[in-house]
Each structure stands twice: as C-alpha cells, then as structure tokens.
Amino acid sequence: MFALALATAWSEGRRPWVRTAIDVPLGLFIGWVLLTIPFATDLAYSFAEWRKFCAHVLVFYWALLVLRANPDGDMNMRIRWAVVVGAGVLSVYALTDFVERGGTWRDRFVRAGAPSSDYNWLTTYMIIALPVSIAAFATCRRAWLRGVAGLVTILVFLGQVFAYTRAGWLALFAEGLAYGAFARFRRFLLWTGASAAVLGFVLVALSQVGYQRDTLDPWTLDARIAVWKIGIDEVLKHPVVGVGYGNDTFLKRHPEYSPQAQRELNVKEAVLPAMHNTFLMVTLGSGLPGLACFVWLFARATRSVIAGGRVALGRPAHIFALAVAVMVVGFAVRNFFDYMFAGSLASLFWILVATGLSVVDKDSTTEPTQPASSS
After folding, report:
1. Degrees to nearest 5, angle at CA 330 with 215 and 177
2. Average pLDDT of 144-148?
3. Which residues, at least 6 apart from 240, have a Cβ–Cβ distance to it below 8 Å?
4. In which band, very low, low, confident or very high, does the pLDDT at 309 lie, cut at 50, 70 and 90?
5. Residues in contact with 344: Cβ distance below 8 Å, sequence separation at least 6, in sequence order
6. What's the pLDDT at 217?
7. What b/e sequence results for 308-319 when a residue is b if at least 16 CB atoms lie within 10 Å of its CB, and e otherwise?
8. Cβ atoms within 10 A of the Cβ of 261, count?
9. The pTM is what?
10. In angstroms, rounded to a whole number, what is the distance separating the alpha carbons of residues 330 and 352?
11. How many helices (H) and strands (E) does the chain have?
12. pLDDT tens, 184-212?
C-alpha cells in the first residue's frame, strides 16, 4: 500500500515524501534496534520482529500520504466514523457474549472479550476508541449523529468495564487525567482523581462482603513484578544493546520459565513467560538507548498532535487532535502492563496518529452526512 501511494503521488506530481515531527525519534528507534540485532539471542526472530515494526511504520506513512491527497478533511472524518462504528459493533458483540456466557457484576470469572481474541485485545481497543467516540460526540452538529456517537461511547465504556482488566481501567483514568492536563481543565482533573478514589474504595468494600475478590486478587501483579525483576537484572547486565528485540526473547533466553517447564518443576509461584511490559521489553531487547528513543517517540507524538490541534482553526479540529493525544497516553499506560503494541492495534494506533498530525483547517467545517457512508 505504501509503494502504491508513492507511485500515485509521483504520477500526480505530488512530493512523495511527508515530513512529520516524529521522524527523528522514529528513525532513531528503527535504526538502533537494527544495530542491536547482531547481539540478539535469536537473530532471525529479532529481525522478524523488527520487520513487523517497520511494517507498522509504513502504515503510518501510507496513511499520511492518503490523508495529504485528501486535503478537504473528508478522509479524516471517514477515519473517525470508521472507528466509532467499528467500536459500536464490537461493543455490542462483546457485551452480548459476556451476558450469554454468564458474566456478572459480582466478579470477573467471565470477562468481556473480542471475537477470535480475548479481553486484553478488547480493553486495549476500547482505550484507543473511547477518546475518538467522545470527540465525535462533542463535534457533531446533527442531533442524530450526536446520539449515535453518544450511544457508542456508553457501549465502549461498558465494554471496558466488563472486560475486568485493571490495566485497562488504569489507562482509562490516565486518559481522564491527560485530558484535564492537556485542556488545562483543573476541575476535570479533580473529578477524575476523586472518581478513581471512590471506585477503588467501593471495590475494596465489595471484596470484604464477597464480591469482586478475583478482581482485587494481586497475583497477576505479583507475577508481573517477579518477571520484571528478572528482566531488570538482564538489563543491568546488557544495558547498551540488550539481548534481542521481541516479546519472545525472554523465553528464548530463559526457557526454564516456560509454562511447561514450570509445570514439570511444580513451581508454586509461577513466573510469567514474558515481560508483560512493552517498555521493559524494548529495554531488555535493545538496551537503554532503545528505551530512550521509544519514550521520546511517544512523548513527541503527544506533543506534536496537541500543538497541531492548537494551531488548527476551528473547534472540531482541535477536539479531535486532543482526543488523539489523550489516546496516545492511554495506549502507553496500557502497554506498561502488557505487550499490546502489535497487530491490528498497532496499525490503528499509527493511522490515528497520522490523522491527528494531518489535522487541517477545513476539518472544522466538514461534517459527515451519514455515519454509514462516512465509515
């Protein structure tokens, strides 16, 4: 798709390259990971994982080329409504399936999930989609479109709740705090913090009378801390080039922590077979320079999208740019507890970042006529 976009731009006399504010950290990260591959535990695997990341980067630049070829803002609106409609359909499926399988508010023995996937994928997608649906609700002028966006926002929120993923809840609160900080809305910051405290108190109170005990069971956090300690020890031994990029590098270096090996050894306190932390995975695989570039990439993307929204003429353009910046923060927090920066989630993340960076003035006057055609 990227090659086709380049060829089309060339044939139409357009400049085939698009410069963005994140080119430097993105290029440095890709280059550094490639330089560290010769030191990897499994060279072929790390190179394959590097290529996957490069493919997602191509999605980002392809999206920028397509958006630049549609400067009237219509494509931006189509992308937003595609996310909204897709999130609505997915939420209906997840909630219906949750009820049919006996899901309840009492505990998380049954959790809302996505088709052909699980609650981890679902909760990450909801973190990406929720700011977009809220932005669509806030910018729609037509009542029925606002109603659609509002209904989807409620469904997405419920899907996030009944996925019963604490990292997803934490990312949701992080998005609330990010919005309050980016919009300089101190009252919203206070409301978000107070809501988090109240909900935490309610969960603890419910656990004391027999509800939501599994939700508050700290074993998953303890298991993460156990594997994080091992990962940090490896980082201290290989701080510059790491031991190989990729989520499975940990097991390739420590096969004794595979589920099968731990069952055979009858380990009482099992260690998770991966870092369950994208940032630590990057550090373990590519060293501290890799982590620095990765964090710089997220920070630069957030700052650049906010800056683009502030210079855009028109409230809708600014709101959507703010939503993308909030999404980047939530996605980063979610990835602090699992490796979710992969597959379709990564592709959608890059497309939305590209859309946020390409906000133009005419976005403020463009409204979709109907969500079906816009999606």
Report:
1. 90
2. 93
3. 287, 288, 289
4. low
5. none
6. 87
7. bbeebebebbbb
8. 14
9. 0.90
10. 13
11. 16, 0
12. 888 998 999 999 999 999 999 988 888 88
Instruction: Encode pLDDT of 234-276 as tens digits.
Output: 999 999 999 999 999 999 999 888 888 877 777 767 778 899 9
Which two three-digit tokens encode residue 350? 């890059």
Give, to the nearest 10 degrees, the angle between helix 23-36 and helix 278-311.
160
8 Å CB contact between 83 and 132: yes
Q: Is 108 exposed, middle or buried (0-12, 13-18, 19+ CB in 10 A)?
A: buried
Q: Does the structure show a pLDDT above 70 at 280?
A: yes
Backbone angles phi, psi at 352, to 5 degrees: -70, -40
Q: How many CB atoms lie within 10 A of CB 135?
A: 25
Please answer whether residues 247 and 275 qualify as being in contact, where contact means their C-beta atoms are separated by less than 8 angstroms. yes
Give the pLDDT score at 81.
93
Residue 248: Cβ within 10 Å count: 17
How many residues in total does the chain contain?
375
The mean per-residue pLDDT over the stretch 53-57 comes to 95
Cα gap 133→226, rounded to integer Å: 37
HSE of 334 in the Cβ direction (CA atoms, 13 Å)? 29
Residue among 72, 24, 81, 21 nearest 352 (CA): 81
Q: Which helix (H) or strand (E) holds 291?
A: helix 278-311
DSSP letter assigned to residue 124: H
